[in-house]
């Protein structure tokens, strides 16, 4: 691959100082970085700092005639492989959503034919304001990847979502996007990024406006359909379920949701429409993924049912086998007698086996099995019992749930494919490659 080129647009927010670290990380990894800074951004970091770190001229003014000759604004918007807006101010998000182009940054964002990644940062009230939320939804619908901001204490003293994700986290998304490109903004050949909860009103894959040759004068336009899961719909469950005993207590397990979320991220990066049904975990939603949060196994089963049909379902969630048979409406109190309250359990629905038997059974149905002993034998038994196509077995005795890596064995009727221990993101990418091959073998994709 050629050296990746990033166009970084720095907006006028207090977090602009973090863009300096982002430039450093990008340069350190060998990428070519060109920076554009808004007029407000210049109040927070100087073009000189960005120029020194990026080792490139920094652009600030749309009406710089010399640049229009040497490097026109259209060329500047298109020579990059990826346009990154960090920090993306509320103002920039609003202008991008409305298609306003009244300075260099916003003109480039409107003129670009490249994927756009925006990392918002602002006061919590600004972020939660319906106008900003509307703008973010519009941008995501247009194919812009808008990261969720981090949560925490803000420079203004308030607490909540609105902090710029750490530069290392933005850098990781950029690296992933370059290896498996993000959808293009503006629907120009972009992969679908929305996925309705109800399959009946799921959008069909994007119109074919972006096919090669359609866009005259944009020779390096990359069609989205080169991505291996473009046009496929994938449903993923992740995390634990919480089964209430009373208003303050619940039955749960140690699932962190990390592997399921990594799989959802990898599926979206590979071009799939992704519906992630997540148990209670405090993880950010991966870019391009539609997430539905649930609490209990019964809720998860219902959301899965509503999410079908799909091309593949990957059931990563560690669903509680049992729930409390009776849930107390009030907190159960000790009565001082030393008597322990009885806790009767009821069996939860078997979501995986239920889908396998349903009329909407996905062509590829994959279950996960976390085992502490006899990993392969248990996985083989589970494969037969549940009626799914593959079981991804992982040994949680070696690396307890919540760790950063996984050693998995893919058990199917064709045998066992054992992988080395890998970071969860790498397991997810490898699994997506295998799924894409399997789906292509079963039903080759029709060209757009
Ligand atoms: C001290 C200070 C800090 C600010 N921080 C933010 C911020 O973090 N996020 C944001 O959206 N706007 C912030 N603003 C407001 C923006 O600077 C303002 O909306 C500006 O018009 C944004 O311009 P731009 O989007 O062209 O960069 C801040 C303003 C001031 C004075």
Architecture overview:
The chain has 448 residues and is an alpha/beta fold. The chain has two domains: 5-179, 3-Layer(aba) Sandwich (Rossmann fold), CATH 3.40.50.1950; 199-442, CoaB-like (Rossmann fold, 3-Layer(aba) Sandwich). It is 31% helix and 22% strand. It is built from 14 helices and 22 strands. The protein has helices at residues 16-28, 47-54, 65-70, 73-78, 90-98, 104-111, 124-128, 130-141, 167-179, 258-269, 297-307, 351-357, 375-386, 424-442; strands at residues 5-10, 32-37, 58-59, 82-88, 116-120, 145-146, 150-153, 159-163, 233-238, 243-246, 249-251, 273-278, 289-293, 312-315, 322-324, 345-347, 364-371, 390-395, 405-406, 408-412, 415-418, 422-423. The strands form six sheets. It has an eight-stranded mixed beta sheet, with helices on both faces. Strands 3-2-1-4-5-6 form a six-stranded parallel beta sheet, with helices on both faces. α5 (90-98) packs across α8 (130-141). The longest helix has 19 residues, at 424-442. The protein is globular, with a radius of gyration of 24 Å. The two termini are 25 Å apart. The structure holds flavin mononucleotide (FMN). Flavin mononucleotide (FMN) binds next to α5. Flavin mononucleotide binds at residues 11-15, 38, 40-41, 89-92, 121-122, 126.
